[in-house]
Amino acid sequence: MTEARGSAGLNGTTHARHTPGTPCWVSLMVHGMAATQEFYGRLFGWEFRPGPQQLGPYVRALLDGHEVAGIGQLPPDRHLPVAWTPYLASDDVDLTAATVRHSGGTVGVGPLDAAEAGRLAIASDPTGGVFGIWQAAAHLGTGITGVPGTPAWNELVTRDTESVVKFYQGVFGYGLEPVVSADFDYVTLYVDGRPVAGIHGVGHGLPRDRGPHWMTYFEAADVDEAVERVVELGGHLLKAAHDSPYGRVAMVADPEGAMFSLIHTVR
């Protein structure tokens, strides 16, 4: 997903600066910070430390000392969907935000500085799918991938790929590889010849109460056991564990309803 720089143990890959267009961070805005940290800490073994507070209380999740995700506090009067949001790397967030607007998207927050960490914006594509844009300074983004508890993949779930793929290609310059199939609408997004994210058209299978949205996949050592843990911790199973060409996968939600997928990647 990202540019590798060195290694972390035998199984993980550490990362430095991310190439523009690659998912470089995932963040979750919630109502109950303490309960959410408890849930993900017990599920993934994350520890937490404070992060920039520009948008309210915020913590960064760490795994073996490497930053892997962020969790922030929603204002009490904001009744927004609780959802994991991927941040896509940019060398110039102001230019990228302007390109989003010119391409039919919307910029809802920023661009603004997050202390010394970097500069960010939160935007949505023309169909309503929300994503972040991150220009790194001190904070480069996700520090490790490839081990349980780290982001493994990000995928836009939308009605059809045709309506939105040109937007992302125009803004981030992705290479495209569509699946040629009458009953499977999928486009893989590439940066420098590497697959970095996907767009999945699900037609009428799109949840009416959610609309188009980005889905984050987290690596799990054992998907079935992780699903059991989610439920024990107060979360919910949305799609039972099953085998896919990329590994065993399941869809779940945390106690506040934030959806995410668990995957044990085939390597």
Write down the domain tally: 2
Q: Supply the CATH class of the largest domain.
A: Alpha Beta
C-alpha geometry: globular
Report the total helices. 4
- Give the biggest sheet: 8 strands, mixed
The CATH topology of the largest domain comes to: 2,3-Dihydroxybiphenyl 1,2-Dioxygenase, domain 1
- Say which CATH homologous superfamily of the largest domain is assigned: 2,3-Dihydroxybiphenyl 1,2-Dioxygenase, domain 1
Q: What distance separates the N and C termini? A: 14 Å
- The helix/strand class is mainly beta
> What string gives the helices and strands in order?
EEHEEEEHEEEEEHEEEEHEEE
Rg, Cα atoms, Å: 17 Å
Largest sheet, spatial ordering of strands = 3-4-5-2-6-9-8-7
The low-pLDDT segments are 1-10
Mean pLDDT: 91
Helix content, binned percent: 10-25%
CATH architecture grouping of the largest domain: Roll
Beta fraction: 35-45%
Q: Total strand count, please?
A: 18
Structure characterization notes:
With 267 residues, the chain is mainly β. It has two domains: 13-144, 2,3-Dihydroxybiphenyl 1,2-Dioxygenase, domain 1 (Roll), CATH 3.10.180; 147-265, 2,3-Dihydroxybiphenyl 1,2-Dioxygenase, domain 1. The chain has helices spanning 33-44, 93-102, 165-172, 223-232; strands at residues 13-14, 23-30, 47-50, 58-63, 66-73, 84-89, 106-114, 118-124, 130-136, 144-145, 151-158, 175-178, 185-191, 194-201, 213-219, 236-244, 247-253, 259-265. The radius of gyration is 17 Å and the shape is globular.
